[in-house]
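Progress note, project year one: complex with protoporphyrin IX containing FE.
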Amino acid sequence: MVEGTMTTDVPRHDELVDERLVRWFFFAGLTYLMASMLGGILMALQLVHWNPLTGVELFSAGRWRMVHTNAVAYGFLANSFLGMLHWAVPRLTFRPVASVKIAYFIFFAWQAIVVSTAVGIVVGPSWQDSPWVADLARRTGLPISLGAQGLEWGETPFWIDPIALVGLALVAFNFMTPIARARGPMYVTLWYFMAAFVWTFLTYAMGNLLPEYAVGGTSAGAIGGLFIHDLVGLFVTPLGWGMMYYFVPIMLKKPIWSHGLSLVGFWGLAFFYPLQGIHHFLYTPIPMFLQYGAVISTIAVELVVATVVINFMGTLWGRSRILVDNLPLRWFYAGMVLYFITCFQCALQVTLTFQKLIHFTDWVVGHAHLVMYGVFSQWIFGMMTYLFPRLIGREWESRKLCEWHFWLSLTGISVMFLDLTMAGLFQGYYWSSLQPWEASTIGSYPFWVTRVFAGLMMFAGFLCFLANLRATFAAGRRPATASGSLAASV
Ligand code: HEM
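Model obtained:
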């Protein structure tokens, strides 16, 4: 090959990637995380009667619980993943996204969707009583509700659903086009990303449209269960693991340990995950054969995803000292250990024997925080810790603040998880021994107080990250290298 041919044939990364857009998605994601964490702390305070906003209806716990979860899923996780996709997909395919204009449109449209959802949830119930709403409902024959829809994770007001679906279709189009045009190997990361584009669209459509317009009763319940679990398994999980398959080999500078295990992990997820959603509604009137099917496929998927963790541990084998200095990798591997614990816990808690005790207790809330914060948010923090210096063009201003962010977050989530797991066990025993309901709330009180402090610890870690980010932006420009010294510095 004539010297220089490569440089003319292969576009440079900075020509392929719109770094401003990556930054914008990250900033948007962090803004929603701030809102969600404040909402979480507010709720945690309300649950121990330390409500700083007593009597303000707009800040009632019911509304802010929905803002808390929606802001995390559709605000923080979705925006952060979109930023990451804009960084990784053009690099893996040597092709830019289908259209930069569409990418910017998606950015603004997505923020409008998330903000409208929050506004709908918080003030929708107050507007609902207006005469024009009743009039519109009568004229269209539709169950018009300006507030939240009665479906967990699908609370997005009904009029936003079609817009969100168009947004998801555009996301799929914009990223699938470079993938379809790419020549050369189809990396594991891209399998996961492609699957996520298709599954997220289908999951969102199924969960938001079918129970609302097509089916009712236990069938709607079954679909609701499928929807909440598929959101984690078919939207967040493939994007999260795809991200790991991209960043970990780059940082370790070695290939993934076993390609065979990558195949097992991917196809196992694809086969077993969609079958297990009904495990959220065990002991309900949903037919038992569906409940048994969900239990078995849940145990199966936990075994399958364990192979993915083993694959990444095999990749790290012999190099584990790197976790002392390399913070992004430390975030990733800490998340993977917590992922393993989540899966192990899940395989146990899904059994009918276990469910007798922990169903509807705080055990489940502990589990939800462990996976959403302990795993996926930690991976996102690791990814941002690695990418922000490259996006800003300078190293992190304070290594100490990076360390504080990591340790406060990890300690905070570990305390919250253990605390809520114990609370769940106590609540289960209170209820099964048929003590009065109040006995269980009095017994839960110390655990709920502990949750406030665990949450504050996680929040303090996040503030360290934001302070560091601000300082890094503000600091004078320092030479950044493309050779990886930035990675070494974190
Ligand atoms: C500042 C720290 C946080 C505090 C104090 C907090 C507190 C809470 C509270 C009080 C609930 C309602 C529990 C209930 O209904 O009994 C909740 C639910 C939830 N939170 Fe948080 N949270 C925090 C951060 C986060 C973060 C960062 C995430 C995700 C990345 C998250 C994900 C969730 C999820 C998924 C649920 C629903 C749990 C379920 O339905 O089982 N939380 N949180």
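The two ends are 37 Å apart (CA to CA).
The chain has a mean pLDDT of 91.
No further modelling is planned for this target in the current period.
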